Fold these 2 entries.
Entry 1:
Amino acid sequence: MRAAVLHEIGQDKLEVLDDVETVGFGPGKVKIRVRATGLCHSDVSAMNGVLPQPAPFIPGHEGAGEIVDVGDGVSGISQGDRVLVCWLPACGQCPACKRGQSQLCLAGFMNAGTPNFKRPGGDVFGFAGTGTFTEEVVVDAGCAVPIPDDVPFDIAALIGCGVTTGLGAAINTAKVEAGSSVAVIGCGGVGVSAIQGARLKGAAQIIAVDPVASRREAALRFGATEAVAPDELADAKQRITAGEGFDYVFEVVGKSATARTAYETTRRGGTLCVVGAGAMDDNLQLNMFELFFDEKKILPSMYGGGDVLQSYERAIALWRAGRIDLESLITHRVPLSEINEALDQMRTGVALRTCIEI
């Protein structure tokens, strides 16, 4: 079958091959025929080594498709069911799950070290234990979440990661209050979803911050009240908040430099919500006096900071009601054979989300 493979960490292009096979199917597993998958910045971060991932590997974790086979012991899912891929399934048994923090369950991460593909030359891993830049993938049954018939595969794929992450950051983690002021730094698919979440919660001012003009323009369509380039943020802070800072600032880039800017842009007593996934050796520096004196809340948000199954259902309900716009998040579409074009669209910032149709 066809799949897009990264042979070595640090390479900037994927090779689309037709000699890849799935492995690992058996009890507790399902095989999914992938129909649509989004390109998320985390895929690029894994390719360049920012996020740890063994190679060779198949990127992709934001996917949807149909069940083609079900292993022994799997219940609730049948051949032919339409599903989205959950890259971080909850085991339901660990301390994090029992505390109601299933987004912190580590069971799904254990799959990342087990290859679920192979080629004639050896094993191939799937990114984050999934790997959706392929025609078929074998995953734990918990990774396959049934979706209603009225939800298209491309929309379901977005809900599987970017939409859930961005909406959840605003709704679950930061708990944006009505009438508040918000700044979102980084306005790709996740950032725009955070903007939509802040709008849903009734934020009065939502400032989108991004260096790419097309993304700033898009952010206005999704609910931002103003959009500025990074070098205009200080002026916006002064003009909108009289220099005090915003009530909520979302960092959706994953770099210490932007996190530091976000901290400085947050008012005393306000909330900095860290959504971007960064490198282990990129350290954010805060001095102990400012940490104490400013009393700013620093809230990391992992996968939307809440129960992902509930978050999926909420996103679908909001989409059906016309309260969030998911169709417009997909600005580009390419076949799997043109996956490197999708990577270019991501790196240059021209795309909010590129859908790879398989």
Note: The first strand starts at residue 3 and ends at 5.
Entry 2:
Amino acid sequence: MLEQAAVAAGMSPARLAALAESVLHDISSGLYFGASVKIARHGELVLDLAAGHADAQASHPIVENSVFSIFSITKTFVNALTLRWVELGRLALTSKVVEVIPEFAGPPRDRSTVYHLLTHTAGMPGVWEPAPALYLDKLDDALRAVVANIHGVVEPGTRCDYSPMANHTLLAAMLCRTDPESRDIGTLLDEEIFQPLGMADTAMGIKSWMRDRHVIPDTRGTVPIKSLSRTTPGDFGLHLAESNESAWAGAASTSGDLVLFADTLRRGGTSVNGYDLISPATIKRARTVWTGEMPNELYQTVALRAGYDVPPAYLGLGFNVRGPRIVNTQLGTLTSPETFGNYGAGSALYWVDPELDLVFVGLTAGLLSQAQNIARFQRLSDMAVAAVT
């Protein structure tokens, strides 16, 4: 069935099979434990690969609807909701953070805007946590810690520092404070994105109907902090708890649900069931590179350690963009320059190529280092493009 769909969509079944073989080779060689990879073109699924296992002991196989903790892909939902809020007039790209969060005072951070948060140019250092051993499951606690401990070090707009958690703590708080119904961030995301798009297996936390399919994340030492929850014990209890408000890293999802989300972006912001999430004009602005040739300070270090040229950050309004130059990137080197998407710590990626009308989603078990992850997904992304006929 999928082979016929691939041919009809202008994709080579042989090339798609080669991509699947590459994933299987990765797994058999021990690079990672397992993967769920889906590719769609013109809205039609052409590859649906579930391979390997959820853990090093190979005790739980990956299936087509395995639930993964998607880490920073959580940010993509907050970004989309922020753009929706701008369209609805509740925020503006030029809204200063301090106008909505008055306690976020003190120069130069008090000059940062929604635009700066979306492009990671707010002038704050890209710290992983604002305080050690912080519980991360409540947004108000995270906000207080960010306000108290993360201060501006350069003028907003002059440097690109990827923010693992501070920017999206602030964006989520701004969304909640400007919501006419005063909903919490989990409810906002569920009612404004997950439910309308039919993303039944996406949530802020591991819900009861998802738990038996959940791939418990094995960070393999690649994440430099603990992710603590008040309700669930363990160094990474946040990713096991039923609920959380970690708007930067707390979501769980399936490859199928992420295809629904990515396909909505591919369709110009309107889902297949007719829900208008954001407009085509906004998506076009969002997939435009707004950071010029500025490097991403976090990935500058990764590049130097890995021995390749430091790439530009190539950030849009909340999305990573492939950009005009050929550089080391998870989004591939054969994708079109306006290809856009988001990734999650050493394990997860989705992207949309608007020129090729192509969607890629890859969720994997067993986190890789940043350089390994970039190389792995660059290879798979290029193989996906090579399957277009």
Note: DSSP finds twelve helices and ten strands in the chain.
